[in-house]
Write a structure and sequence with these properties.
By secondary structure, this protein is mainly beta. It is 7% helix and 51% strand. The radius of gyration is 19 Å and the shape is globular.
């Protein structure tokens, strides 16, 4: 099982004492990205949660600072960010030495839409722009052209916190770097409407989304056109890795450690190669990007080898 999850980084040598991870992601290059805050503010920053969804608290009482760590084969890149106010965070890197930090919730009231996205200059650590990406955000992934793909959970789709016309009504939106919508999950006879974006894997060339109403996995090409649809028997996954005609769905309603490896046929059929459980503690959350995946385990970042996973189980089936 060591080829499926490898202990690649000891966080005790990366994250300073007194700081804890508030959010993590994989960059489009597959590098782990850790957003850390001081231990004394972590609980307030995370917000109140119920069943994994963050309820209406959108701001902290006082601005706080964070440290962003990118773990690369060449070493660790560290940046200090100042002036954050949001709760329940998502983070990713933008081109030109920038990062986006986004809060999951945003209100809409008489003053308009609350800003819940900050773009930071990593050289100074200062906020250079802020805008609204909508309420009820479950996934944020920035692309190589500075656009930002955002997936929404049910409250962001249906409308909450004052939103009558929610930005996330389609379930999936691609924005430009200033927060202007460029593309939305389409209304199509080929696709069931999206009630909730469960898993997202976006790059400039293609975007994959696994979503609830039909538990379908859909591939969009660079232009945003449908490139494939697979209706799956996998329910409740929260992350998807894709490469070379294979997809791995991580998590289920029963256990977040469950994984299903699928072979994707051009006909739209998905053949189950293997189901197994990753060697992680209960409630572990895997993240995935392109053919990379990983998880935070205590003081370690565990990196998955997708190619090794495919080789192991396809050989086992043959």
């Amino acid at each position: 099982m060591h080829a499926l999850l490898e202990d690649a980084w000891q966080l005790t040598s990366v994250v300073p004492a007194g700081w804890l991870v508030a959010a993590y992601n994989l960059t489009t290059s597959g590098h782990p990205l850790l957003l850390c805050v001081e231990e004394r503010v972590l609980k307030e920053v995370l917000g109140t949660q119920d069943m994994g969804l963050v309820w209406p608290q959108t701001r902290v009482a006082e601005p706080y600072r964070a440290r962003l760590f990118e773990l690369t084969p060449g070493g660790v890149h560290s940046h200090e960010l100042v002036g954050l106010k949001m709760r329940a965070l998502h983070v990713d890197l933008l081109p030109d030495a920038r990062a986006i930090v986004c809060g999951a919730r945003a209100r809409f009231d008489a003053l308009g839409a609350e800003h819940n996205a900050n773009v930071f200059d990593l050289r100074s650590g200062a906020i250079v722009s802020e805008f609204t990406l909508g309420d009820g955000i479950s996934h944020v992934q920035a692309l190589e052209d500075s656009s930002i793909v955002v997936g929404y959970f049910d409250q962001g789709v249906e409308g909450a916190l004052g939103w009558k016309q929610p930005l996330g009504a389609s379930g999936l939106v691609r924005f430009d770097q200033h927060g202007n919508p460029l593309w939305r999950f389409p209304v199509s006879q080929k696709l069931a409407p999206m009630d909730e974006c469960y898993a997202l894997n976006a790059s400039l060339e293609e975007t994959w989304v696994y979503y609830y109403r039909d538990f379908a996995l859909v591939r969009f090409d660079r232009a945003g056109d449908v490139g494939g649809v697979w209706n799956l028997a996998v329910q409740g996954a929260h992350a998807v890795a894709v490469a070379g005609g294979y997809a791995a769905l991580f998590g289920s309603y029963e256990d977040s450690r469950d994984c299903c490896l699928l072979s994707l046929r051009a006909s739209g059929q998905a053949d189950e190669v293997y189901r197994f459980q990753l060697p992680l503690p209960p409630r572990s959350q895997v993240v995935a990007r392109r053919g990379h995946y990983g998880a935070l385990l205590g003081n370690s970042w565990l990196r998955g080898d997708f190619a090794a996973l495919v080789r192991a189980f396809t050989n086992q089936k043959s």
